[in-house]
Design a protein that fits this description.
By secondary structure, this protein is an alpha/beta fold. Helices cover 43% and strands 17% of the residues.
Length: 320
């Protein structure tokens, strides 16, 4: 498809360069995901969906976009699945997409919406992610496709993603294995006088190298380590700093390999050299008790709310 230009520039086109790249998910798995979405669309009288979030585009196409001031999307109708990408990304989105891809240029501000119109010519009801679109984006989409009813598919797609397939389990297990590897490297790197960032760098590099060695082809992006010491541990999302680790510091270790858009995490509390006080040790042991009880409670048919209630009760009884 190439939208007829109003001047000498192409506004929407296809760049099918190279070959489709290796994916951890089979064609059967990707068809299952797209079919499940189409079944929901048919039941809800939705003609097509425009997915816009990182998670949904990655889940239904296999392509994880890099947001850099441009809009991205994926249109799924009863027969086709097509991602929408910016020219700056070249042919990479097509190579990663299970389905087709169209590319819009920056020559006109509305080219993204031209691509949406091209892919939804007879759509009356369009599924969108209301939990992802800003108010401005929602209004711009309404203006771009007048007369089309926009209906939410954010909640329904979330529940589809929640139930993991066997192939997803396999990939997640790779992630947990690499979490463990990163944590071991982190522990080995910790010593009094070593700055936080050096511990984090060693940990992240080890995980990236293991990800690269574990798959025939993989995009290496977004894997990281949170490692905090002393006062920096008071916030779970405090950034890594150049603070020097001190003997007796409480330490927060968090390893996060990101593999084909799938996130796994290992989070642990440690101490450098020795435990600071008996109270520190007591609270650490409470956390261990909660963790171990949680492992016991996670069973088929268990509810997250029930597990959380029991673990909260342990914390309340033993902490205060």
């Amino acid at each position: 498809m190439s939208t007829a230009p109003t001047d000498d520039m192409v506004h929407v086109t296809r760049w099918h360069w190279g070959s489709k790249e290796w994916s951890p998910f089979s064609a059967t798995e990707m068809e299952r995901r797209q079919t499940e979405l189409r079944n929901h669309m048919a039941a809800a009288s939705i003609d097509a969906c425009l997915l816009t979030s990182f998670h949904n585009i990655c889940y239904y196409s296999g392509w994880l976009y890099c947001y850099f001031g441009r809009k991205y999307g994926m249109v799924v109708d009863s027969e086709n699945a097509t991602t929408i990408s910016a020219g700056i990304d070249g042919g990479q989105p097509w190579r990663r997409t299970y389905g087709d891809n169209v590319v819009y240029s920056d020559w006109r501000r509305e080219n993204y919406y031209q691509a949406v119109r091209d892919l939804t010519p007879r759509t009356k009801r369009l599924g969108v992610e209301l939990d992802h679109l800003s108010v401005d984006q929602f209004r711009a989409l309404e203006a771009a496709i007048p007369g089309v009813e926009l209906v939410d598919v954010g909640a329904s797609t979330m529940w589809m993603r929640t139930v993991k397939s066997t192939e997803e389990h396999d990939l997640i297990r790779h992630g947990t294995r690499i979490c463990d590897l990163g944590a071991a490297v982190c522990v080995d790197a910790v010593a009094a006088g070593v700055p936080e960032h050096e511990v984090a760098l060693a940990t992240t590099q080890a995980m990236v190298r293991e990800i690269a060695a574990s798959f025939p082809f993989v995009e290496l992006m977004d894997t990281w380590t949170w490692f905090q010491s002393g006062d920096n541990t008071d916030g779970a999302h405090n950034p890594v700093t150049n603070k020097l680790v001190e003997s007796g510091d409480i330490l927060s270790l968090n390893t996060f390999p990101m593999i084909f858009g799938y996130y796994t995490a290992l989070e642990r509390t440690l101490f450098c050299g020795h435990v600071t006080s008996d109270e520190h040790l007591r609270l650490w042991e409470v956390n261990v008790e909660v963790h171990e009880r949680g492992l016991e409670l996670i069973q088929p048919n268990a509810r997250c709310c029930d597990i959380a209630a029991e673990l909260n009760d342990i914390t309340a009884r033993t902490t205060y």
